[in-house]
Amino acid sequence: MKVKRLFSGFLAVLLLLSMLAGLTLVSAANTTTFTSSPELYSYVRDGYNQGDLGPISITRGTLKSGFSSKSVYLVTLSGTELVLNQSTGVLTDLLSGFNLDNVYYANVVRIIKANVPKGANLILAGHSLGGMIAQQVAANSEIKSRYNVLNTVCFGSPLLAAGSREGTVRRLGDVSDPVPYLSGSLFNNTLWAILGLNREDGGYGIRGITAHNQSYYRSDLWGKYDVTGTKYGGATLVLDLSTRRFYQSPVIDW
């Protein structure tokens, strides 16, 4: 009888270990690890979805750099997209380019405050207009008082005279992409708008729009830049995909 009880207990332990292993496998299947900027850019591009999901997404994850590991919330922002009742149009481009209030910017601040716990670490990443909005958010007084903005990564985005931006801002721009130079901040600091841009030559020549949209996918150009936009930086980002949520940015700031 004693042997039988021991055998039953052994089977129970095996069953428990099996269940735990299954949970681990499920958890691993819901995570992805980004090691370079092109992977982050591809994630940002999911916001171009014709308004079906919205241009804004938030995902929980872990930023790893050397021996450091920090829990973070990744906020991604796509750029100009002409969608009915979505604030990603040309007017927003102009307003954000001159660091003026706009509905997209207001929506992002509101959504972060409503969905990210106070005191959390933030990483902001955006393409084109999305990168401009990200710079505005990194300089927003409410965001800076409630959160720790660690990094802002901008793909093909102009430099804004956005004031004191928390954390590190990295702008990546193909030499054939004209958009990173189109900003009102050029009137304030032309030299830094150019020298502060991390540039790579994808060989696009006069195909500026193609460079603007396609260059940042390329690991042969941008694979040396890590997930914080730092060249040869080595930081990685582990994301829990089950936590990713998309948000709309309507033209009316509710």
Task: Give a short overview.
By secondary structure, the chain is of the alpha/beta class.
Q: What would you note in describing this structure?
A:
The chain has 9 helices and 9 strands. It is an alpha/beta fold and 254 residues long. The chain has one domain (30-247).
The coarse overall form would be globular
Query: What proportion of the residues is helical, as a percent range?
Result: 25-40%
Q: Name the helix and strand elements from N-terminus to C-terminus, one letter apiece.
A: HEHEEHHEHHEEHEHHEE
Total DSSP helices: 9
Descriptive terms for the model:
single chain, disordered N terminus, 254 residues, 35% helix, 23% strand, 9-stranded mixed β-sheet, 9 strands
Write the layout of secondary structure elements.
Blueprint: H1 2-29, E1 31-34, H2 37-44, E2 56-65, E3 68-77, H3 90-97, H4 103-115, E4 121-127, H5 129-138, H6 141-146, E5 148-155, E6 168-174, H7 190-195, E7 197-200, H8 208-214, H9 219-222, E8 236-240, E9 245-247
Parallel strand pairs: 3-4, 4-5, 5-6, 6-7
Antiparallel strand pairs: 1-8, 2-3, 2-8, 2-9
